[in-house]
Write a structure and sequence with these properties.
3 helices
Length: about 55
């Protein structure tokens, strides 16, 4: 909705009953996927470690 329909983050958050941080993370994930970058769910919240710092 934010990316395709240019809706505001607060409006989408209210309609989906999610917080703005969650929605922004989803938006970032979709943008990375569209750019062909690998996305590792949960990697952003790993106590400051970037995805490059983590071993599989």
């Amino acid at each position: 909705m934010v990316l395709d329909n240019n809706c505001s983050v607060p409006d989408v958050c209210a309609s989906m009953d999610v917080g703005p941080t969650t929605l922004r993370r989803w938006i970032d994930q979709v943008r990375k996927e569209h750019q062909g970058q690998a996305v590792h769910p949960g990697a952003e919240g790993a106590a400051g470690a970037s995805s490059q710092d983590q071993t599989p």
